[in-house]
Amino acid sequence: MLGRRSLLVLAGGAFLSACGARTTAAGPVKVCYAASLTALMETHLGPAFSRATGYRYDGYAAGSTQLAHELADGLRKADVFISASPQAEALLLAPGVAHGGIAWYAQFAHSPLVVGYNPKSRFAAALKAGPWYAAVLRPGFRLGRTDPRLDPKGALVEQLAAAQGRAAGDTTLATRLLTAGVVFPEQDLVGRLQAGQLDGAFFYQSEAVTVGVPFLTPDAAVDPSAQYTLALPRGGSNPAGGLAFSRYLLGPAGLGLLRAGGLLVQTATIHGDATGIPAALRTALRGG
Questions:
Q1: With 125 labelled, which of 56, 92, 163, 254 sits at a CA distance of 20 to 30 A?
Q2: 3-class SS of residue 183
Q3: What is the mean pLDDT of each run of 10 residues along the chain (288 residues)?
């Protein structure tokens, strides 16, 4: 079990079980997802889904906002879109989206923002001794973060920096923290940290748990978190496969993997037009 915190369970056993009997379905199921889920999706969820259903899993990871724009602009197609922010899904929910639009999305889990660090870093002891931001601002500390224009995590880092500055009574702290951080694509942060190219970086707790990165929970006035959502974009090449993946993800087997990966599973909330939800998911998503 990889999770480190107590997890909320879905009310009344709401979600459907994994997709039932193994199918002989052909064609890949294309899943675009927030890069913070890379290790969980590629090592655990994707392969488990394929073994359970017979569908071939085809995952693609990037920043949630970037993915939403690529889907809306027709640069990418997906049968399933999993983001780390409702704002990314809202881009596709907007009227007039010609490609990859959605009628609804379901918010199903969350994970707080943490500061992950390389245990071999010469700053590791200072980070653990605290406060974390004092260590981060030491000369020579290499801090990684993501672009807030492409990734919700980058926007949450800005919120955290502002809140930490207010909590510390330091009007310059937020600017200094953001200036200290070097921007990288979300999918590169874990590898750079583990390779020793970074001393620390901002992660969601779930991705730190999944890949075994030690982390600290910032002590600030706010608790910024990823809010994981799921939608079925229009124009996907395998709608049946997308539905099958959604049922697996939100069924007992998938939810077990989410919990093991450190996500805090919550009662699903639906946004948009619930009448667009496929019948095979509607009752489960409503908790019935």
A1: 163
A2: strand
A3: 34 34 68 94 96 96 94 94 93 84 93 95 94 94 94 92 90 94 91 96 92 87 85 94 93 92 90 87 63
